[in-house]
Every structure is written in C-alpha cells, then in structure tokens.
Amino acid sequence: MNRAAPAPLANMGEPAPRVDARQKVTGEARYASDFPAGNMAYGYLVTSSIARGRIARLFLDNARAVPGVLEIFTHENTGELKPVPYSGGGGGAATSMQKLGPEVHHDGQIVAMVVADTFEAAREAAGLVKIEYRAEQPSATFGSPGAVEADGSEVPAKTKDLPQAGDALNALAEADAMIDVAYGTPTQHHNPIELFTTTCVWRDGELTVFEPSQFVYGLKAGLAKALDMPADKVRVISPFVGGAFGSKAQVTPRSPLVAFAARKLNRPVKLVATRDQGFTIATYRAETRHRIRMGADRDGKIKSFIHEGWELTSRPDPYAVAGVEDSARLYGFGAVQTHVNLVHADRNTPGFMRSPPVVPYIYALESAMDELAAELDLDPVEFRRVNDSMTDATGKPWSSRSLMTCYDQAAERFGWKDRDSRPGSMRDGDWLIGWGCASAVYPTHVGAATARVRLQANGEAHVQIAAHEIGVGVRTVVAQTAADQLGIPVSAVEVETGDSALPPAPVAGGSNQTASCCSVVMKACEAIKARLSQPPSTVGSGSGGGNTLEDQFKRLGVGAIEEYAEFLPPGGKPDTIKKLYAGTPFLGGGSQGEKLMYALGAEFVEVRVHALTREIRVPRMVGAFAAGRLMNTRTARSQYLGGMIWGVSSALHEATEIDPRNARYVNDNLADYMIPVNADIADVDIILVPERDDFVNPMGVKGIGELANVGTAAAVANAVYHATGVRIRQLPIRLEKLLTA
Q1: Residue 591 CA, distance from chain mean position
Q2: C-alpha–C-alpha distance, residues 348 and 611, integer Å
Q3: 22 near 79, Cβ under 8 Å?
Q4: Which of 2, 294, 450, 710 is the 20 to 30 Å CA partner of 534?
C-alpha cells in the first residue's frame, strides 16, 4: 500500500491494479480508429464558415478533380438519411446536416464530407470545396442582439418540477443578513485526447461501426433509425474510449453520415475529425449565469435560498443544465425558490460535460455560502455545519450524509484552525496567501443493466457486459466484484466490454457505471453460487463428495455454469430492460425516489497571489470524500485526484473564447485552450472517508467519477478572495481580472 494505492478502511475494496493496465501502456489496447479494414476510404469534414444563414450554392468541381476523390456528400445527396433527433444529453438538430438542409445554425456546422482513397486526398479536396453563403448577423452569447430567452421549465421534462418550498421571498425580507449576487461560468470544451472518430464497415447488409462511445446500444439504435434499417443489423464496437465525460454519449450527425457514405461507396470509410472540428461537431459545457439571493438569521441559520439560472443553448434545441435540482437540496434551507431560463443563440447545442448540472450551479452556491458567511462574520466551515441537515427544505430525507465528517477530516489535515479570517492578512513575502473551502456533491445514480457470467470448473470466470471503459476502471471493479462473489482471484476473471453484441449496460454517464454494472454482475454470480450449492439429487447424477470448486462441478456433471442476469433499480418499469435493449437507458437515484441519494465531500485549497503581478498559484489542496462502498481504493483515489485537478482548470484556466461578432470559437486548439500542466498542480491530498449506505443499491456504491471536480472551483475562488479581498464571480479567475479589480 502507498499514497497511490491507499490501504482500504471500513467498507472499501482492495487497491487492485487495473486489469487492462498492461494493454494500455504497451499499446495493445485498441481504440476505435485503430481497427483496420480492407480497401479503406477516408472521410474529411467540411464545416461552415458562418454562424447563421443558408447555403446559396456549392462549388465542388475543383474538389472532385483531386485524384482519388470518390464522392462529396452534402445536403443535396443525403436526403435518404433520417435526421438525428435531439436528445436530453445534447446534440441533434443544431448539428444535423440532413435535417437542416441548406440552413446554417452555427459556425463549424457540418455542411459536407469528402471521401477519397487516401486521407491526404480527402483533406486536399475538402480545402477546395467552395460555398456561397447568404449570411445573417448571428447572436453569440448572453446579451447579444437577437438572442431569445425562454422559460426553461416549459421545455425539457427535467425542469418541469424544480425544488420549491415555503415563501422564500418573504423569508428573505425578514432575514437578519442577506446577499444578492450574480455569478457566471464560461463555455468549456472537452478536448479528449482521442479525437472524434467513426469507421463504418458493411458486409451482407449488416453494419459494423467502430466509434468511441459511452453508450453502444444507444449509438446502435440511433444509427438504425437514421439509416432506416433493423437495429439487429447494426453492431457497435468500442472496447476503449480515450476520454469522453459526456462528449461521446450521444448519436452525432457524423456517424450516420459515415455509415451512409460507406454503404453508397460499397467500401469501409474512416473519419477522424480534426481538433478544431471537435469544438463544433460535438457537445460542450453550456455557458451559464446565476443570481443567488440568500438570507440567514444572526446565528447563521439560512432562512431563504433563491437560485435562478440562465443557460446558453442552440437556436433549435432546448438542452438544459438545470442544476438547481441539486443546489436547492444541499443544505437545510428554510425556504427555497428556483427557476431556469434558456437563452437561444447561434451556437451548436451544448450537452453533458463532467458533472454537468452541479459544476456551474454548485460553484455559484458554494461561492454564495462563503459570501454570506463573511457577511455574518462566521467561519465558513461552521456556517455549513449550522446548515447541515438530514432533510432538505421540502422535507425529503437523505439516505446517508457524511458532509461534516468530510469537513472535519479535511480541515484537520489542511490545518484550517490556523486560518486568519481577515482577507489579505496572511502573507509570505510578496505572496498573499488565501485559504478557501467548498462542498462537493453529486447525485448517486443507478441504472438498469444486464450481464452474463460464466464460471468454469478450473476456477476461471468470464464476464460479458456492454459497459464502457472510458478510463475510469470499470473493467477492474467488475472483475473484483466477480472475484469476490465467486471466491476466485481477480487474475482469474476476464471482463469483456464495449460491444453491442454483449448484454446491455447503461450509459457511461452520471457516475452510475460501478453501481449499475457491479450490482448486476453480483446478481449473476449469486445465481451461479445458488446452482453450485444445490444438492446432487436435484441437479443430476454427478459424483464426488469433496467441497472444492472442481468437486462441486463434478456433482453437477458440467464443466461450466453460465448465468444471465438483469438488474432493475427502483423506479424502473416492467419494460425498462426491453427499452435498454432498444437503446433507451434508465437511471434512477439522486433526488428521485423516497430519499436523497448523493455522494459528498469537502475540499480545501490554498492559493498564493503575487502582490504585484497578481499571478495565482495553488500549492496545495485537500479533499475528503464519502461515497458509500469504494470498490477499489486505487481507482477511487485516481478519480478524486483527477476531479480536483479538473476543478483547478475550471477555476483558473478553462474558457472557450467566443468572437461576439461572428459567434465563432477562437481558441479551438490545445495551444490556446488553457488547461493546467504539471507545474500548475502541486500537492493534492485525498482522504477516503468510510461510509455505509445500504439504501442506494445492492452494492452500497455511490458514484465518484464526477464528484471531486464539483467543489474545487468555488474553493479556489473563495481562497482568492481570502488572499486579496477581491471577489471574482465570473470564471475563470485570471490575473487580469485581479489587476483591474
């Protein structure tokens, strides 16, 4: 055991190394674009150079003249394709060439795809495609002329029943202390190391697709609909995904377009989009604005919480973040009022990006908590303790809640008791020192899932489940589950994932995979154990009186036992599994049901701000997290570590810059899109807090993949205020904002 592989405490699994680690470090692991096919053709996208208007005329002759060009696909010759529908995770009409026809709804919209014998020929020809546009003035962002505000509660289903409790306005008026503040978070893009890629191969009327996917069954169903073909004739293979966190969860227009081209040309087609195209052909984190009004009595008890959000989305699609669902439940607010507004502009549709609702909304809440604590002259940790509650304002109880345990352990490790509360009071030479804290929270989701487990007499097991290895270690924890249940070593378990030919699992999103997949694998293993324990008279005429695994198989007269299992979480309907096979996942948990199911944490950050240059550094962070049963302390720590680093990125670095005149992304590359490097991240101390919660799911697991990056941005912002006395409420916090404050 070491810092990277912490010794397990109560209700924690062993820090087993990743079962696929050797494959990844040796290059044996195959990602989507690594799969070969005979006689491959190559696609290259042409994207719009305007953000609003329509295509008046296409000039393709020069492009067609490039040697090796096979075809150029546009809205004029892809009419057979069905449009990609909008889904709750983003994507859809705003990027769908076949739905929009000549209409252009955002910069970088797919308007053509060149296919050629070589990648180089396709790229050259794509550069020779000329388009005459009838351009209109676009709306880029909040406040842009022509942007249209809509009531978010009237569009997506998830915003129809947002938390409300009591008379929040009256309670605010009667409070002893109150704040009325506005916050903002920028557009951010995923930039996964693995680019967006699709390879399609047809054989005897059946389609095989190699594409990085967070939901292979959803991609399979979406492609079948777009191509107007039976879903059982489509297979999606995605064994490893090189970064995703929401960007690869939906069916995007590129996938059916590549499949359509491959069918028309009667040969395999591979498309690997460029880095800059990834900014506009996939989803991203929506830009948000917030107004928080909060009032408390003199002792710090919050009497009123009012949170209104504004979220930027595309012109035709109604994607909503709606994070008030979580912000309004985190503390025992006396009265609550929430609302969400959508602002439609000429941008591509946003979608899920790691911790999609809670990252922007909890940033605003946890910043406001710090501001109200300062107004009351209360320690920020004690202010949260006063408002810690086992029920929310509506009276709904928590299934378990270890928030203050996390705060106590993290505060002690951090040395919070030595903090001088006066802003600007702590200094080391030219460096102003600031300490800040914030809560992390993420809903515990669990999804419908299926799995097949086969145990052989020699003690080896094989698990088949169409889960998705996006880097979080699902193969490892599934192998551990099977090994623990069957009483065999982890090394004896082989796990097969990432293929729509396997039993379906839910989407790899919402931090549900461990809970969902391990629960169904446990169920299959229990069925195997039940068969092994049956007396010989009921199962056959096998011989042997010993109690080893081999003896048990001899009594059964078989060489292997295979069991298929289905797991249906609370709230699932009788047809939920059938819908899962048809590409519609079901996720329960969070604020749904009779209890609030959430993982929680406390994060403490030290920042140093140079008194003259306003350079900001983060020398150390401490995070303590409680998330039910931890299947593997090594992978858990890794997830928490990565989340807090991403939180620093959100706080100080990341923002997609937008040209307000042309509604165009400016820094659409890894050179100009700012993210932390090793020199920006010093010491990150992770505390695994033991917690047991038998209510959330059979495994007692709470998701952790998205938890740790929720509170970090607010903790950094609060620390910057403590160091300088300046509140920066619009992320990211950069030195120029401090210089001009």
Answers
A1: 18
A2: 40
A3: no
A4: 450
Neighbouring-strand partners of residue 90: 87, 351
Pairing of strands 103-104, 53-59: antiparallel
- One-letter amino acid of 584: T
Helix (H, G, I), strand (E, B) or coil at 597: coil
Question: ∠629-633-638 over CA atoms, to 5°?
Answer: 120
Q: In the beta sheet, which residues pair with residue 114?
A: 44, 72
Residues whose CB is less than 8 angstroms from the CB of residue 547 and which lie 6 or more positions away in sequence, other chains included: none
How far, in Å, CA of 462 to CA of 448, rounded? 21
Closest by CA to 179, choosing from 289, 303, 327, is 303
Which among 628, 614, 604 is positioned nearest to 686, based on CA atoms? 604
CA distances from 23 to 26, 27, 28, 450 (A): 5, 6, 5, 26
User: Are 209 and 198 contacting, i.e. CB atoms less than 8 angstroms apart?
Assistant: yes
User: Which has the closest alpha carbon to 45: 133, 109, 92?
Assistant: 109
Specify the 3-state DSSP secondary structure of 99: helix
Please report how many Cα atoms fall inside a 13 Å half-sphere around the Cα of residue 432, on the Cβ side.
Answer: 22
Instruction: Let me know: does 646 contact 710? Beta carbons within 8 Å.
Output: no
3-state secondary structure 382-441: HHHHHCCCCECCCCCEECCCCHHHHHHHHHHHHCHHHCCCCCCCEEECCEEEEEEEEEEE
| CA 57 to the chain's CA centroid | 39
Tell me the C-alpha distance between 156 and 491, whole Å: 46
15 vs 24: CA distance, rounded Å: 18
By residue count, the chain amounts to 741
Q: Which amino acid is at 436?
A: G
Which secondary-structure segment (H or E) carries 123?
Answer: helix 119-128
Q: Which amino acids are annotated catalytic?
A: 706
> What contacts 360, CB < 8 A, 6 or more positions away?
185, 285, 286, 288, 290, 309, 321, 323
Residue 3: how many CB atoms within 10 A of its CB?
Answer: 8
Q: How many CA atoms within 13 Å lie on the side-chain side of 457?
A: 12
The CA R_g of the chain, rounded to the nearest whole Å, is 27
Using an 8 Å Cβ cutoff, are 730 and 651 in contact? no
- Structure tokens of 42? 């190559």
Q: What's the average pLDDT block by block, 10 residues per block, for the chain (741 residues)?
A: 92 96 94 96 98 97 98 95 76 65 94 98 98 98 96 69 94 98 98 96 98 96 95 97 92 94 98 97 96 98 98 92 95 97 96 94 98 98 98 97 98 98 97 98 97 97 97 95 96 97 95 96 97 61 62 90 96 95 94 95 98 97 98 97 97 98 97 96 98 95 95 98 98 95 79
**CA of 721: how far to CAs of 364, 424, 480, 733, in Å?**
14, 8, 44, 11
CA distance linking residue 126 with residue 129, whole number of Å = 5
Phi (first) and psi of residue 107, to 5 degrees = -65, 140
User: 432-444: string of b/e by CB count within 10 Å (b at 16+)?
Assistant: bbbbbbbbbbbbb
In the Cβ-directed half-sphere of 359, how many Cα atoms lie within 13 Å? 29
CA–CA separation, 237 and 36 (whole Å) = 13
> Alpha-carbon distance 418 to 630, whole Å?
32
For residue 708, give Cα distances in angstroms to 119, 626, 646: 40, 11, 9
| Residue 449 phi, psi dihedral angles, 5° rounding | -155, 160
CA distances to 95, 205, 422 from 387, in Å: 44, 61, 23
Q: Which residue has the tokens 């293929």?
A: 499
- Partners of 557 in the beta sheet? none
3-state helix, strand, coil in the chain (%, to 5): 30, 25, 45
User: How many of the other CB atoms lie within 10 Å of CB of 530?
Assistant: 11
Q: What are phi and psi of 721, to 5 degrees?
A: -65, -45
State the Cα–Cα distance between residues 441 and 359, nearest whole angstrom. 9
